[in-house]
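Fold this complex.
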Amino acid sequence: LGGKWEVHVLTLYHSNGVCPQKVRVCLAEKGVEWESRSVMGLDLRTPDYLKLNPGGYVPTLVHDGRVLTESRVISEYINDAFDGPALRPADPYDRAKASLWSKQIDDSLHPNVYILSCVVLFRDHFASMSPEMQDQALPLDPTKRERTMDLLERGAQSRFVPPALERFAKLTADMERALQQSRWMACDDYSLADIDHTPYFQRLSNIGLESLWTDKPAVQDWWARIQARPSFAEVQTNWMKQEELDRFVHTRAKGQAMFGPLLEAA
Amino acid sequence: MELYISANSVCCQKVQLVLAEKGIEPTFHLLNLRAGDSKAPDYLSLNPRGMVPTLIDKGRPVIESSVIIAYLDEVYPDPPLSPADPFDRADMRRWMLLPDAALHDACVMLTFTAGISPEIVQRQIEANPDPAARNRWRTMVAQGVDHPPLVEKMGVWNRTLAEMAERLARHDWLAGDAYSLAETALLPYVERLVDLGQDWMWLERPGRAAIQPWLDRCRARPNYVGMSRWYSHEGAAAMKLDMRANGLRARPRLEALSPA
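Structure:
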């Protein structure tokens, strides 16, 4: 293999968090080959990883030696830099609508899905840790740390839970209205807006909150179409062991029992 | 084209810089936030969150400043404000995310704890229909620069300036090799620090020497008039005087919150 030849290496540092899941779905929809580097737990705090991603988050994308962070930026880059189906709407106004949907994830869906996941998925795991491990596992940001401690202590009784449920009730209502107007969230074409919401719906389902949209036919139909796409396997089935997937049967039941009374009261 | 703004709002300034660059003169609707204009039913039908700015283009509303400026650059691409290279474009988008992620909240908190006199915002706070938000604002304004969450927000400001300075030490502009939406997204925030009398945050801090020349380059461009033309507007001018007087008094405390 003499001579000069270019190797286009695309590496994604990822985990099973919702943000890396968005990017995995985007890569699958675009039909781009990539190399996987799984980064979980304390791997996120190693000096080598912090050099790539100073905040210690996933995902990080490295393309030909250039580093990108922030899932929204990464997905738009993948759409821009590679051939394959366009994942942003053709019309600029629809594109602005798609951006607005994706932006609300960063603004409010993400912190709220964290709140709800915390009480169903992380609480038991946390209780099994030593105090030193617990201290390491808590977020560094003082506001987030305080909120996480309250959620771990009080579970569904935490004051942070009802507003989080309300936020997702609003999301599914907003989506029901939009999806009655167009086939996908931003317009009649599937776009990054749909991709970006996919892992959030999977997470809500994993924590027993499908009831947020079982009374909303357009959202139900959207979710069925999302699950039928080949890219859907990239959310979790391709990247989790069977026993991890099986555990969601229990977390679903647990979440239903926890949130059911709160949803009825609302 | 129509643009709903308030005088001296950083989010509106972003959009005004882009419109000036494109040579577009919209019809301006100046809202008085203190009088509750942005919470009026007609305005809420355009912008359900009751925020400024709102752009009306071809009869349709576009909201959220970072979405508006990206939209304007796509619909009116001449002259372009996005680099051609996809990686530079991604870099530009990452700079554009900073205000959405944390910088805007840090700016609001700094402005209302160190800048604007409490009596000026009192009426606006009492008019807020959400009791939890009302309490939060009352506490914040009463505590001023001793408001505990300000510690974290000053960290956001300092990290942003450090990151900008690092990039600008090696390049003239934040993304790619020309003025872009990254500049229009961050310039109003840097100007807010100037308004508050806090330009020591780069002039007197090591490693941040590249920020002032960048600021001067931004100010020398013709599109700067998009934001500066409002400086002398009655409401904005009074607000600037108030912010500066209070900001200068707050400086020792803010310096203590910004370890070198």
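The radius of gyration of chain B is 18 Å.
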